[in-house]
C-alpha cells in the first residue's frame, strides 16, 4: 500500500511540475539563448529599418537577448509580413509592421495569402509619424503653394517619389492631390531610401515620405521640407507647416509602426515582449532616438494595441476607396 501511495505521489508531482513548466515556460524561458529574428519589410536606411534597429539594439543591450534585424523588402512591405504570417508561433519570428503593409496592403494587393486580422498577433505599438512632402534644396519649388500653382498650370508634369504603391505614403500623396485639386505623377520605389536619393539627384520633383526616412537629409540641409500631412506639426520639425494650415482644412494622414507575430502567438510571449518594449519606450534615450528620426514614440498595452490595430484595419477600406489608389 505504501509503495502504491509513493508511486501515485510521484506521478502527481511529475504531472504538477510538467503543468507548471507548460504554464511558465513561454514567459520564463523565452527567448533564452535562441536568437529572435525581427523582419524589416523594407530596405536598409528607411524609417522602418531605422526604428527596427533602435528597438532591436536596445532589447539586446537591456536584456542580453539576441534580436537580429532581417531586411525582407518588396511588394510595398507585404513580402516581409508574409514571411512572419506563415511562421510558427514560437516568438522567434516577429516583424516590424506598419499601417502601410499590415493594414492598407491588404486592400490594395489582390491574392495575399494572409489576412492581417486573422493571421497576425499584435504585440507592441512603437511610434507614429506624419508624412512629409519635400523637395531637393536646389529645387525651384520653395513652398507647397509653388507646387500647387505649377501643378495646376501643367497637370501631370510634377513627379513625386514614394516608398511604393499601396503604402500610406502613396495614399497620402493621392489624398493630397484630391484635396489640392491637382494632378501629379506618382513614381513608386522599393523603399524610402531609393525615392529619397532620386529626389536629391533631381530625377523626381518631390519626395513624399515618412519623417524618419527624410529627416537626416533635412537636417543636413539637402532636402527642403514643404509640409507635413498630420493634424499637428511634427515635434521634430516644429517649423514645418501642416497641409491643413496651408488651406486644406481637416487634412490628416499619418502612419504608425508596431511589432507583430504569427497568429496563435502564446499570450505569455506577447506579454513579455510588450512589457520589455514598453520599458524601452519609457527610457529617455530611446525616446530621444525615435524623436531624432522624426517619429513620435507611443507605448500601448498589448490589448490596447490589438484594439487600435483592428479598428484601423476596419477603417482602412473606406480610406483606400476614397483615395482611388490602385496597384499597377
From TrEMBL:
Q: Which residues form the signal peptide?
A: 1-23
Q: Which CDD domains match?
A: PBP2_Bug27
- Which InterPro entries has this protein been placed in? BUG (IPR005064), Bug_dom1 (IPR042100)
- SUPFAM superfamilies for this protein: Periplasmic binding protein-like II (SSF53850)
Domain of life, source organism: Bacteria
The UniProt similarity line reads: Belongs to the UPF0065 (bug) family.
**Protein name, entry field:** Tripartite tricarboxylate transporter substrate binding protein
Q: Can you name the source organism?
A: Comamonas piscis
Amino acid at each position: 500500500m505504501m509503495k502504491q501511495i509513493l508511486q501515485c505521489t510521484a506521478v502527481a508531482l511529475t504531472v504538477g511540475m510538467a503543468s507548471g513548466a507548460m504554464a511558465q515556460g513561454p514567459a520564463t524561458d523565452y527567448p533564452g539563448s535562441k536568437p529572435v529574428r525581427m523582419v524589416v519589410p523594407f530596405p536598409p536606411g528607411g524609417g522602418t529599418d531605422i526604428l527596427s534597429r533602435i528597438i532591436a539594439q536596445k532589447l539586446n543591450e537591456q536584456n542580453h537577448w539576441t534580436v537580429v534585424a532581417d531586411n525582407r523588402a518588396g511588394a510595398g512591405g507585404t513580402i516581409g509580413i508574409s514571411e512572419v504570417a506563415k511562421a510558427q508561433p514560437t516568438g522567434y519570428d516577429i516583424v516590424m509592421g506598419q499601417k502601410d503593409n499590415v493594414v492598407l496592403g491588404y486592400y490594395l494587393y489582390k491574392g495575399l495569402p494572409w489576412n492581417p486580422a486573422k493571421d497576425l498577433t499584435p504585440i507592441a505599438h512603437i511610434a507614429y509619424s506624419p508624412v512629409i512632402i519635400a523637395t531637393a534644396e536646389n529645387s525651384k519649388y520653395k513652398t507647397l503653394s509653388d507646387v500647387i500653382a505649377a501643378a495646376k498650370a501643367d497637370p501631370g508634369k510634377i513627379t513625386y517619389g514614394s516608398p511604393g504603391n499601396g503604402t500610406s505614403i502613396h495614399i497620402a500623396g493621392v489624398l493630397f492631390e484630391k484635396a489640392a485639386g491637382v494632378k501629379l505623377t506618382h513614381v513608386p520605389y522599393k523603399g524610402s531610401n531609393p525615392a529619397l536619393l532620386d529626389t536629391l539627384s533631381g530625377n523626381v520633383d518631390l519626395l513624399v515620405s515618412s519623417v524618419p526616412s527624410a529627416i537626416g537629409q533635412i537636417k543636413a540641409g539637402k532636402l527642403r521640407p514643404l509640409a507635413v500631412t498630420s493634424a499637428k506639426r511634427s515635434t521634430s520639425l516644429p517649423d514645418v507647416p501642416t497641409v491643413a494650415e496651408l488651406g486644406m482644412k481637416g487634412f490628416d494622414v499619418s502612419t504608425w509602426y508596431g511589432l507583430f507575430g504569427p497568429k496563435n502567438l502564446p499570450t505569455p510571449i506577447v506579454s513579455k515582449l510588450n512589457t520589455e518594449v514598453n520599458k524601452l519606450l519609457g527610457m529617455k534615450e530611446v525616446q530621444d532616438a525615435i524623436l531624432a528620426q522624426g517619429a513620435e514614440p507611443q507605448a500601448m498595452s498589448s490589448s490596447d494595441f490589438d484594439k487600435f490595430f483592428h479598428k484601423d484595419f476596419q477603417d482602412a477600406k473606406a480610406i483606400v476607396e476614397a483615395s482611388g489608389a490602385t496597384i499597377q
